Fold Tetratricopeptide repeat protein.
Amino acid sequence: MMFHCERAHSSESGSTNPLKIHKESDTDNPRVQQQSTKPRYPAVLEEALMKQGAKLLRSGASDEALGTALRQVLTEYHVSDQDAKVLLIRSINRLGAYPFALSLISASPTVDEEIQSIYVECLIRCGDFKKAQDILLDWKTGQSQLWEDNAEYLEQLSTIAYLGIDSNAAYSQLQMGSRSELPDLIRHAVRLGLLDVAEKLTGDGDFYYLCYYIQSLYAEGYVNKAKAKLAEIDPSFLMQTLPPYKESLYIYAEILHDKGQFSEAAAIFERLADQFPDMARARFAASSCYLHNTMNNLVGRIELYHPGEVEQTKIEKYMDDISEALQVIHSTNWHTIWSPAQSRNFPIPYSQVLQ
């Protein structure tokens, strides 16, 4: 299987929380609503931290080694102690070292809103649901600015913490109310690593919510789990036009592509492109399939016929052109891109992933 991982400083969907923070933060994350266009920290510094962190993750370094290396980067940039603390926690969190981030915050509490929100999410990720709930309740009853700005999301976070404590009772309560919030709850539960909670929210035999679960699993790097859930659905059922089915079918085709089943994947991508003309990525995906098929045919021709030097040179030139075309198509980001934090959920270690 081919895995596509982001380099250095790219947008990450799964390692930061979608909160509106009064202090400027996460300028590379479109889910965080900025109240100012001025970066909180120099972009070059944050890029250096993430580049170094991703490099160490690929080498299989421990979270403690990550922390040591990032502290050294901060020292080289002569950052103040307070800013260094915030940047270190932010970076460690974005790299998916949640227990380590939690220990850093616990050792030195701060009033920084962003770090407080990271703290609550890390508590949930690490299973301390009661403490997370207590903090969220304090924010709500105290009418904190953070709560007022992010009430809907923090209510969902509180519900997820409650589900972590008693998933059966909480899910029964959800069943009695509106189900419109279930897709977001499923997505956030998976993002926070609570797969058992997300599975309960999905329900039994409901393909509509199962598709949301599959999308969330795949987006967060749980590729094998997403494949297992996809196997529960007949692919023909995914041909419906509703968004969750469309996206799950795209994921199914993407998985076929990564398994080398290019013809089957191309047929699905072409169908999606025809059915949804504004889905340009499906066209690029189909092109990738065709180019890979052509490349495989050329390799097979060389192996089977052992062409002469002149013909082999021509074939190799053609293969080089195909490789360049594949690079251009890949740059369109038609394929899912996972952040370093999400890559920790891959079925193989990040250090063994094709870069």
In short: Confidence is low (pLDDT under 50) at residues 5-15, 22-38. The CA atoms of residues 68 and 200 lie 39 Å apart. The two ends are 12 Å apart (CA to CA). The chain is about 65% helix and 0% strand.
